[in-house]
Design a protein that fits this description.
Helices cover 35% and strands 20% of the residues. By secondary structure, the chain is of the alpha/beta class. The chain has 2 domains: 128 residues, Rossmann fold (3-Layer(aba) Sandwich), CATH 3.40.50; 184 residues, Rossmann fold (3-Layer(aba) Sandwich), CATH 3.40.50.
């Protein structure tokens, strides 16, 4: 596996190279510390994965990511911290096509092996998604027992799954939904859970709806958006509350879009919509098919507006999506659909 590092922090760079040297089948092919140098290297010697810091002189990481994805795309794993100052930079870069973000050790821990667990987990996940590592079985499986519908009234539920390019896509959809939106929205975005609270706050600034991180069981409320924020699967439970499950078999992504969609298909036979957005891999495609087979409305983002046409393409190929739409029209389609439910 060919890896490159774009990082303007010498001490961090030194320890990161030492860490990668110990991993099997990893070859660091180049290192750069300035934005222009990263672009120049990427054009002539493209890696499988670029490990990219979030602070560079003279260029934002969002703009740098956009140029990299336009000119010489590869998998990009951002290297950041979960402090508030980093949030906007991280989400801008994720919206431009970075694959994921890893939370790095604090300055005090550099030079030790402590605090690198999250980086190693995200790195291995990205290797698998890129087909550079054996995949974990992610075939759809039901939970241990059927979920019973006891009929608690809830508003219409919109379930959205996203991965690479997701933050920007989510913001685009949510800005088109008014404060009178009659449904509740639950989001599974492939992202390190340390950054999910920040994602909820970032999305909240751009929509009339109320966006919050989902950290505990809730009864969905109309006009509210819930962003999965724990490293557990989010499910719609038999009492129609949103909750969490570790009962599912291990999957590549936790939380998994497939698990959420399957739970909705088992509990609701109407008043729900599944939406699958831009992303690498195929998480969500099988679950979206289950929702469609249960008689629920399903939407997938189209190729032209997707940063990575992986997850929605898998849904299209399965026949899971009733509608395949440009990103810019999905918000209005949701409004129209809920008026008809």
């Amino acid at each position: 596996m060919r890896v490159a590092i774009g990082l303007a922090h010498p001490r961090l760079l030194k320890h990161l190279r030492e860490l990668l040297f110990r991993l099997e089948d990893v070859d660091v092919i180049w290192v750069a510390s300035r934005g222009q140098d990263i672009l120049d290297h990427q054009r002539v010697n493209r890696p499988d994965v670029l490990l990219l810091g979030i602070d560079f002189e003279g260029v934002s990481v969002g703009e740098l990511t956009r140029r990299l994805m336009d000119e010489a795309p590869s998998g990009i794993l951002l290297l950041g911290h979960r402090d508030p100052q980093s949030q906007t930079k991280v989400f801008d870069a994720l919206g431009q096509g970075a694959s994921d973000v890893a939370n790095l050790p604090s300055e005090a821990l550099l030079g030790t092996d402590v605090g690198w667990e999250d980086f190693l987990d995200r790195f291995e996940t990205l290797r698998t998604l890129l087909g550079l590592h054996d995949a974990i079985d992610s075939s759809p499986q039901l939970m241990g027992s059927d979920i019973m519908d006891i009929g608690m009234p809830v508003p219409p539920l919109v379930a959205i799954g996203a991965s690479t390019g997701g933050p920007k896509a989510l913001a685009t959809i949510l800005k088109d939904l008014p404060d009178s939106f009659p449904g509740a929205v639950v989001i599974v975005q492939h992202l390190d859970h340390h950054f999910c609270q920040g994602l909820a706050e970032w999305l909240d600034h751009g929509t009339a709806l109320s966006v919050s991180a989902l950290n505990e069981d809730v009864v969905p409320q109309a006009g509210h958006v819930y962003v999965a924020a724990r490293p557990e699967h989010v499910v719609l439970q038999g009492d129609r509350t949103l909750g969490f499950s570790q009962a599912e078999p291990e999957r590549l992504n936790r939380p998994s879009v497939d698990v959420l969609f399957h739970s909705i298909a088992r509990v609701l036979k109407s008043q729900a919509i599944g939406v699958l957005l831009t992303g690498m891999g195929r998480d969500g495609a099988e679950g979206l098919l289950a929702m469609r087979q249960a008689g629920l409305m399903t939407i997938a983002q189209d190729a032209a507006s997707s940063v990575v046409y992986g997850m929605p393409k898998a849904a299209r190929d399965l026949g899971a999506a009733q509608s395949i739409l440009p990103l810019e029209t999905i918000g209005q389609e949701l409004m129209h659909a809920l008026e008809c439910l």
